[in-house]
Amino acid sequence: MIITFGLVAVFFAVIIFILHKVKQTNDSFTEYAVAGRSFGAKYQAMSFLNTWYPGAMFTAFAGLAAASGVISFYVLTYSLLTVVLMYVMAKPVWVWGKAFDLKTQPDLLALRYNSRHIRTVTAVIGILSGIPWLILGMQALGVMFVHLSFGKLSFSMAVLLGVFVIVIRQFWTVRLGMRGVIISDMFQGIVAYIGGSLILIGLIMWMMTTQDITLNTMDSGMFTIPSIGSEQGPLWLFSLVLTGAIGGWCWPYIFVRLFTADGVKTLKKSAAIAMPLSLIFCVSLLLFGMYASGLSSVEGHAEDVWFIVTNQAGGPLLLGLAGVIVLAATMGHTDGNIQAYGAQIANDLIGNYLKLDPKQLIIIAKVGMVIITIISAWLATMTLPALFALAVMAYQGIIQIAVPQFMGLFWKKGNKQGAIVGMTVGFITAVFLEFNFPESLPWAYGLTSGTLALVVNMSIYVLFAYLLPNDAKENQRLDTLFNLVHAKPNKG
Amino acid sequence: MNKNEREMQRSLPIFIIVWFYLDAIIALAPPIYWIVNDYRIMFIFGMPATLFYFISVAVCIVCSLIAAYLVEEKQGAFES
C-alpha cells in the first residue's frame, strides 16, 4: 500500500509543482477562459487527448473489450473520425473566434445566429449533460483507490478519498483557468497515453508469452459485430460511431480547445500529432482488454481488468503506476470539464444578461467552478443507481447541438429559429426516447435515441431555413461573416 | 449553396476531400460491417476479419488526416 499510494502522491506533487510554475500573461477574461489563444501544436494535441480520453477508458472501455470483444473498437473509430471533423471546421471556428474574441461554444452559436438566447440554451444543455460525467470521473477514482489499497479501503471511503484528491486539484484549476489546465494536460497526457501505451503493450506481450493467450484462443463471440438479426439491431454500430464522432465537438470542454490554439495551422498540426498517438493508445488498450479476457482472474470483473492484470503481472509497483495513469487521465478530463463550465456560467449565463467587466467575469467563473465542483463532489459520494444511464442519456442529448453547430459553419440558410427550436425539440426527443428505450430503439433497427432525435432536429432546422428565410440585412451580415473566413489564410 | 460556401468547403485539395468521405463511408456504412461480420472467423494478416476491419479503418483515417496536413503545408496553405 505504501508503494501504490506513494507513487500516486509523488505524481500529485509533480503536478502541483508544475502548476506553481504557471504564470498568467494578463488578467483579461480571454486569458482566463482560452489562455489568450497562445498554445502551439504539441500542447494542443496533448490537451485534446487528455480531455478526450478520461480515466474511465481504463475501466469502462477496457472492461467492454474484455467482456464483449471487438465491438469495443467503435470508440477508436469515432475518436479518429471526430479529429477529421476538427480538421474540417478548424478554419471557420478559429478565424471567427479570433476576429470576434469568442471564448466559448455558445459564443460561436450566438455570433453565427445573431441570437442572445441560443447562448443560454446551448450553455444549459452543455452544463446539464456534463455533470453526470464529472460524477462518474470522481467515482472512477474511488474504484482506483479500492484497488490501490488492496481492498483495505471500503468503496465509500475510497470514493471520498477520490473526491478529496480531485477537489484539492481544482484549487489550481480555479486559480489559473485554462492556462493551468493546458500546461498540466501536457504532463498528465504524457503519463496517461504515452506511459500508458508502453505499459499496455508490455502487458499484451506478457499475456502472449507467459499466459499463452492469442487471438486464436479467444472465443469467436469476441469478434462479433452486431449485424442483421442481432439483439442490438443492424444499425447499432452505425449509431454509436456517428453519435460519438459528431458528439465529440458538442462537449463544451472539447470545443473550447479550438479557441486555445495560436492559429489554424496549429490546430491542423495538432490533429496530425494527436492521431497516431490516439491510434496507438486506443488499439493497445482495446487489444489489452481482449487478451485479458483469457485470464481466469478477470472473469466476472471486466471493469477491474486494468488493475487486476497490472497487479498480477507486476505486483504493487505496476499497480501503483496503473493508478497514476488513471489519475492522470481523470484529472485532465475533470479539470477541462470544470474549467469550461465555469467559463460558460460567467460568459453565457450570467454575462449574457448582465453587463460585466473582465474582472467580474473571472470572479463569477471561479465561483461557478467552485459550485460545480462542490455539487459534483457531493453527488459522487451518494449512491446513484441510475447515474450511468443518466450519463448515456446526456450524450444522446448533447449531440443535438451538432445540427446548428456544424450546419451553421457551412450553410448560410440556417436561422436562429430553426437552431433553437430544432435543438430544444431534439434534446427533449432524445431524453424521452432514451427513457423509454434505453441503449437502442428496437423498432428503428437499433438506432440510438440521439440519432433519431438528430433526424428530427435537422428536419426542423432545414424546414425553418426555408419557411422563415433570413432577411436581406441578416444575409448581408452572414456574407460578411463567411467572407471573413474565405479571405483569411490558414495561418490566421 | 453559393460560391463562397462551396469554396469554404473546398479549401482542401479534392483528393483529400474524397479521402475524408471515404473514411466516413468505410467507418459508417452498415453493409460493410455486416459483410465483414459474416467472415469474422476468417483470419487476415493474423487477425480475425472484424478486428482487421476496425484497424484498417483506423489506419485509413489517420493516414488521410496526416496526408491532408502535409499536402496543405506543401501547397503553402498556411502562409499569410
UniProtKB/TrEMBL annotation, chain A:
Its main location: membrane. The keyword Transmembrane helix applies. GO terms for cellular component: plasma membrane. It is found in: Cell membrane. It is a multi-pass membrane protein. Keywords: Cell membrane, Ion transport, Membrane, Sodium, Sodium transport, Symport, Transmembrane, Transmembrane helix, Transport. One of its GO terms (biological process) is sodium ion transport. InterPro entries: Na/Glc_symporter_sf, Na/solute_symporter, Sodium:Solute_Symporter. Signal peptide: none annotated. GO terms for molecular function: symporter activity. The chain crosses the membrane at residues 6-22, 121-147, 153-174, 186-208, 235-259, 271-293, 305-329, 361-380, 386-411, 418-437, 443-468. Belongs to the sodium:solute symporter (SSF) (TC 2.A.21) family. This is Na+/solute symporter. It comes from marine sediment metagenome.
Automatic annotation (TrEMBL), chain B:
It comes from marine sediment metagenome. This is Uncharacterized protein. The chain crosses the membrane at residues 12-35, 41-71. Keywords: Membrane, Transmembrane, Transmembrane helix.
